[in-house]
Write a structure and sequence with these properties.
By secondary structure, this protein is α/β, with parallel strands linked by helices. The protein has 2 domains: 4-229, Alpha-Beta Barrel (TIM Barrel), CATH 3.20.20; 231-270, no CATH class. Helices cover 47% and strands 10% of the residues. The protein is built from 11 helices and 8 strands. The chain has an 8-stranded parallel β-sheet, sandwiched between helices. Strand 7, helix 9 and strand 8 form a beta-alpha-beta unit. The two termini are 16 Å apart.
């Protein structure tokens, strides 16, 4: 197994040039499967993990997330980026303390969002949001861990699709110490290209769900990293729920025939 130092160095190298997919497993098994398929790095998904423990997204605890991150890092020999939501705290100092805990799980990177979870005021004030990124940066640097910090602006996901505002925040997060920038929800080529240009030379993460650009098309726009959020988890739940509903509502079992072969799964995990 590679050391945390090795994985963190490899993760940073992936951001230097080209474009790579960083898929989002929801547990140790799905992480191992993605490693088996040849992906070079993985990222956790807050929603996907929450559903595995019968919780809604953004309802898990810091302790649950840190245990989950440690399990992912132990399951694979790849860099793991943590979806660390909003740092599980409001105040910068507490965000920093929580980031320090996350670093100890062995992750190679983590992201901090600027969403509050409050529908009446969905984004933190700009100044506070910047201070939260600075606190995360300081916590990462305290022991020279080399963990890569991603700064996220959630404007497009919380009903504030103001590209100028999003770019202003991403630039501020970059200056505050974010190594990678992320604006989940941007979709058009113009939006993506504008964000990439605005934060250059810092790398940009692009979220792609059920539809969107291909890897090659995203690379042409200057994207360095593509994640899929909870999409793989939703796909897995889709198969599960279709089969379960068929049994419950019709008393038939045809959907079970679409499952992945058990023998192949045993080979992969052997």
């Amino acid at each position: 197994m590679l050391t945390s130092t090795d994985r963190r160095a490899a993760f940073r190298k992936l951001h230097v040039s080209g474009c790579f997919i960083i898929p989002n497993p929801h547990d140790a098994g799905s992480a191992r499967a993605l490693q088996h398929l040849g992906f070079k790095a993985l990222a956790s998904t807050s929603a996907g993990f929450a559903w595995t423990i019968a919780k809604a997204d953004n309802r898990v605890t810091l302790e649950e997330v840190c245990a989950h991150l440690a399990a992912l890092c132990e399951a694979v020999d790849l860099p793991v980026n943590a979806d660390f939501e909003g740092g599980f705290a409001h105040e910068p100092a507490k965000v920093g303390a929580n980031v320090s805990r996350a670093v100890k799980t062995g992750v190679a990177g983590l992201s901090i969002e600027d969403s509050t979870g409050d529908a009446a005021k969905p984004l933190y004030d700009r100044t506070l949001a910047i201070e939260r990124i600075k606190a995360a940066r300081a916590a990462i640097d305290a022991d020279n861990s080399g963990v890569l910090l991603t700064g996220r602006c959630e404007g497009f996901l919380v009903g504030q699709p103001d590209l100028a505002m999003v770019i202003d925040r991403l630039q501020a997060y970059s200056e505050a110490g974010a190594d990678c920038l992320y604006a989940p929800g941007i979709k058009t080529r113009d939006q993506i290209a504008t964000v990439v240009k605005a934060v250059h030379p810092k790398p940009v993460n692009l979220l792609i769900g059920a539809s969107g650009l291909s890897l090659a098309e995203a690379a042409d726009l200057g994207i360095r990293r593509i994640s899929v959020g909870g999409s793989l988890s939703r796909a897995a739940w889709g198969g599960f729920m279709r089969a379960a509903k068929e049994m419950a509502e019709q008393g038939t079992f045809t959907e079970l025939g679409n499952g992945y072969p058990g023998g192949e799964l045993n080979k992969m995990f052997n």
